[in-house]
Amino acid sequence: MDDTDRAVRDELERRLAVLAVEEREAPQPAFPRSDMVALVAIVVLSIVLGLIVGIA
Predict the structure, then answer these.
(1) How many whole angstroms separate alpha carbon 46 and alpha carbon 37?
(2) Of all helices (H) and strands (E), which one includes residue 35?
(3) Count of domains for the chain
(4) What keywords does the record list, in alphabetical order (predicted)?
(5) Helix H or strand E encompassing 16
(6) What are the residues whose beta carbons fall under 8 Å from the beta carbon of 39, sequence distance 6 or more?
């Protein structure tokens, strides 16, 4: 029973190590998606407000 628990624990540690390495090596976007959405919304609102003020 103890050998099985040790084998399971070793396998879980190995898999967690592999996941940690893959996560570190995965390319991260320059901006998180939520920041990009906020940036686009601000730019669109600025353009719309600029057009409204320019027409008036």
Answers:
(1) 14
(2) helix 33-55
(3) 1
(4) Membrane, Transmembrane, Transmembrane helix
(5) helix 2-25
(6) 31
